[in-house]
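Schema walk-through. Below, the input block comes first and the output block second. Nothing else is stored per chain. Lengths vary across the set, and this one has 212 residues.
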Amino acid sequence: MCSVCSAEAEDLTDPRPTSIHNLTDKALLILEGALKTFAASGYAAASMDRIAAAAGVSKPTLYSYFQDKEGLFKALVCQFILEKPHAALEESLLLQAPLRDSLKYLASTLLDDTAGKQPQFTFIRLVIGESERFPDLARTFLEQAHKPALEKLTYLFTHHPDANAVDPEVSARIFGGSIIHYMITQEILHGRDIVPMERDRFINGLVDVLVK
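--- output ---
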């Protein structure tokens, strides 16, 4: 578990969950209200009053679960991470299959998991939109969500017996960055009819570029 997730769990009132994995229904309701408020008003204008109203809880209840807006944002990062199929990045399993098969499986799993999930896209828009005024929020997202995935991909390109990458980290960034670009253009920017590309064609072409 990331350090932010484990630290945030300590901010919740009793019965206190041991991790972000088992937040109470009310805490999850608060996070849903926070995401809606952040998306509608921006991080700066999203007051705890507005978040409490969106979540349908009292302000004292809100503060009993989360100390401040930053704590809410960090909890949203943790929720974003937990909704990702990180089991698909289990290095030991991916090293056993041919690299071509592992990369196709990974790309398919990541794209299938995010297809049509508007809350995740809303959160990404929020992070990008607020990154100039609140760089620490963007850094938290990169540190806890993007960096671990990049490190696991780099490990795969470094240690897989089929890999012949001159620079494994560059290969990892090409693979991960291409998937992110595909999701942004097709889903977040609503570009399926402007820059369309069929998912399997994209995956097969990407793997062909990286595995000779």
